[in-house]
Design a protein that fits this description.
about 280 residues, alpha/beta, Rossmann fold, 6 helices, 11 strands
Length: about 280
């Protein structure tokens, strides 16, 4: 059992049911929201959590890089951020992020609803379960198929160019890839590249919440033939230009999600993850 663990029999007051992390260039979502400063066993989250209402559902929003993008990807306190969402009673987490494309058909401005990831980070605190009770949470299917289906339907209704599946390669950052690394990722057939989806998505699953990844493509990575190296300024510029599309998608997605449903089965993920 970890040093800190939620009591399923006494979950406490529920303040929100859906959590949304904001990525690069995406720092505000909710209107007329209340700010909540949350302390966790792992320190402070990236910022206070804003709680408001979308489509009749209580939604929490937390920009993972901080309100003014002061936290580079390798310095984000992922455990504190995810724990903060769990402490609010959240069962489903939506993780939009800026991402580079590794394939020609995945163009800037497209959205990708990732169904797999490849972890290329190092040294990040990526579990809540440091012992003494041994806990092995499966990562075979890291994202929630049910939320992804609703997201795909929402994107179709809004006319947003999108890809229904894709593998996101998560690199350590803050540097971008070398051409050799990027060409390797491209040749493996992986779809997009990002610096924050891991360990965020796995930590969400460890706390028995469901996760949806929405990658907004801002550029082609340098290993894709014929493209120049990317700059952070370009990433934020393209993301900002597509912010309204992302907000429209999130509002429709959240509105269309069945209330308080977690068909992914993550509510009992720990049942098969521990030695008796």
């Amino acid at each position: 059992m970890p040093a800190f663990e939620f009591d399923k029999t006494n979950p406490g007051e529920r303040l929100a049911e859906i959590g949304v992390f904001g990525g690069s260039g995406f720092y505000h979502l909710l209107e007329n929201a209340e700010s909540h400063s949350i302390d966790t066993p792992y320190g402070c989250p990236s910022s206070p959590v804003m709680i408001g209402t979308i489509g009749g559902k209580k939604v929490a929003f937390l920009p993972r890089h901080g309100e003014k993008h002061t936290l580079p990807p390798h310095k984000i306190n992922f455990r504190a951020n995810v724990w903060a969402f769990k402490s609010l009673g959240i069962t489903r987490v939506i993780s939009p992020c800026a991402a580079g494309s590794l394939q020609k058909d995945v163009a800037p401005g497209h959205f990708v609803f990732c169904d797999q990831y490849v972890d290329r980070t190092s040294g990040r605190a990526d579990t809540f379960y440091d012992g003494p009770r041994t806990t092995h949470v499966s990562a075979a299917d890291p994202f929630c198929d049910d939320m992804r289906k609703v997201a795909i339907a929402s994107a179709k209704d809004l006319g947003i160019p999108h890809h229904e599946t894709g593998t996101v390669v998560v690199i350590q950052g803050p540097r971008f890839s070398t051409r050799a690394e990027s060409q390797w990722f491209n040749q493996m057939g992986w779809g997009v590249i990002n610096m924050t989806q891991y360990p965020e998505v796995h930590l969400v699953k460890e706390l028995e919440m469901a996760s949806l990844s929405i990658a907004l493509i801002t550029d082609y990575d340098c290993g894709v033939d014929g493209v120049p190296p990317v700059s952070h300024e370009q990433v934020v510029k393209v993301f900002t230009e597509n912010n309204q599309k992302l907000k429209d998608l999130l509002i429709k997605l959240i509105t269309d999600l069945p209330s308080d449903t977690m068909a992914s089965g993550n509510t009992h993920v720990l049942d098969s993850a521990r030695h008796s």
